[in-house]
Design a protein that fits this description.
glycerate kinase activity, alpha/beta, 17% strand, MOFRL_protein, 6-stranded parallel beta sheet, 16 helices, Rossmann fold, Glycerate 2-kinase, glycerate kinase, domain 1, MOFRL, 6-stranded mixed beta sheet, GK_N_sf
């Protein structure tokens, strides 16, 4: 293979690596090998999340000989036909009336089942907002206000879900409780750092080990302004079902590390040494950009933690903490990339791609973006001040004006963020003195 890395070659390689990671998490391919024993009675399918429609389609195709019905809910624009399983669409990341209707439909679907019946719960990222049933006396407006406050708080997705579970009449195992005595199997696509199945879509079909006290601690630590009805629920409502009260047959169809492993294989095909830094990296998106710039420079100067040409691969879910001032448009991946570009300051032979594996970074229409050594130079030529856009949390606008956004459309899966930093060439570094 030609050793020369041009801008076109580097960007094309990064897109192939990114696309390979997403393709590895397609539930229509992975679901057949994860299914439980077929039931003597009926199979009722319920589910929520950005991948739930594709998961349902795979299940319907895999079990043509089973009496099967049910309903799942996904984000607007992420729906595909699922045969005998009805697919609803609802709002994300803030729930709407359809989110509430979907939750009620699922609770109704699992009523009156027998021990011969099987419930398969299809859960993926985004399910917390898409399937919403506020605990009494909360209203949907209260739950929407809570979701907005959580998203702006800087809390991790796992911390958000602890709060959501304890404000819900269906999450945190309450759906599984309603399905008894039927057998319940949960199939998940993980978008959670650490792959805790009970945290995915706030665990409606799995026992919950978190407590109301933990939810209140999170609310206090992040100074989250709760509606009065929500605070009343956290202080007075019953605890969620705990381990031992309901069974937990759970199988993971795809997870962030699987996607990074596929990305690593694609990187080798491009002549790059893959360096997987971790699948559960969290923290402020822009600060991670600074950290990743330092690691990339270490590869280029010292061949550590590996020699160039190499690609740094990482996954997980960063956060973007919005201050009191107005914020622009963007998601955590474009903010990470803008922070990385500023920190690299035009360093040669380094390119990067980052995007959300579901195809939507935040609330915008792009999965993420690409940067290269000329990003800041081209920005300056277009009178774009990268630092000012970063300060205004307006990374989407910045990359849109440069033509560097990555648009995949809905991918029908969700294994969280995929980040790849390509270091094409290295140079001799300073060797430490021998002692």
């Amino acid at each position: 293979m030609n050793d020369r890395w041009t801008d076109v070659r580097a960007r094309s390689a990064l897109r192939r690596i990114f696309d390979a990671a997403i393709a590895s998490a397609d539930p229509r391919i992975t679901i057949a090998d994860a299914l439980p024993a077929k039931p003597k009675g009926r199979c009722i399918v319920v589910g929520a999340g950005k991948a739930s429609a594709a998961m349902a389609a795979g299940l319907d195709a895999a079990w043509p000989d089973v009496e099967l019905s049910g309903v799942v809910v996904t984000r607007h624009g992420h729906s595909v036909p699922a045969g005998r399983i009805e697919v609803l669409e609802a709002s994300h990341p803030v729930p709407d009336d359809t989110s509430k209707a979907a939750a009620l439909r699922m609770l109704h679907a699992v009523e009156g089942l027998s021990a011969d019946d099987l419930v398969i719960a299809l859960m993926s990222g985004g399910g917390s907002a898409l399937m919403t049933l506020p605990a009494s006396p909360m209203t949907l407006a209260d739950k929407q206000a809570v979701n907005r406050a959580l998203l702006a708080s800087g809390a991790t997705i796992a911390e958000m879900n602890v709060v959501r579970k304890h404000l819900s009449a269906i999450k945190g195992g309450r759906l599984a409780l309603a399905a008894l005595p039927a057998r319940v199997t949960t199939l998940v696509i993980s978008d959670i750092p650490g792959d805790d199945p009970a945290a995915i879509a706030s665990g409606p079909s799995l026992p919950d080990s978190s407590t109301k006290a933990a939810a209140l601690e999170i609310v206090g630590r992040f100074a989250i302004d709760l509606p009065e009805a929500a605070r009343l629920v956290l202080e007075q409502a019953d605890e969620t079902p705990k381990p031992g009260e309901i069974d937990a047959d759970v199988r993971i169809l795809a997870a962030p590390f699987h996607a990074l492993d596929a990305a690593a294989s694609a990187a080798r095909d491009e002549g790059l040494t893959p360096i997987i830094l971790g699948d559960a990296i969290e923290g402020e998106a822009r600060e991670l950009g600074t950290v990743m710039a330092g690691i990339a420079r270490s590869v280029a100067r010292h061949a550590q933690p590996g020699p160039a040409p190499a690609v740094l691969l990482s996954g997980g879910e960063t956060t973007v903490t919005i201050g009191r001032g107005p914020a622009g448009h963007g998601g955590r991946n474009t903010e990470f990339l803008l922070g990385l570009a500023v920190a690299l300051s035009g360093a040669s032979d380094i390119w990067a791609v980052a995007g959300d594996s579901d195809g939507i970074d935040g609330t915008e229409d792009a999965a993420g973006a690409l940067i290269g050594p000329d990003t800041l130079r081209r920005a300056a030529a277009n009178l774009l001040d990268a630092r000012a856009y970063l300060a205004a949390h307006d990374s989407y606008t910045f990359f849109d004006r440069l033509g560097d956004l990555v648009r995949t459309g809905p991918t029908l899966t969700n294994v969280n963020d995929i980040r790849a930093v390509l270091i094409a060439a290295g140079k001799p570094g300073i060797k430490p003195a021998m002692r």
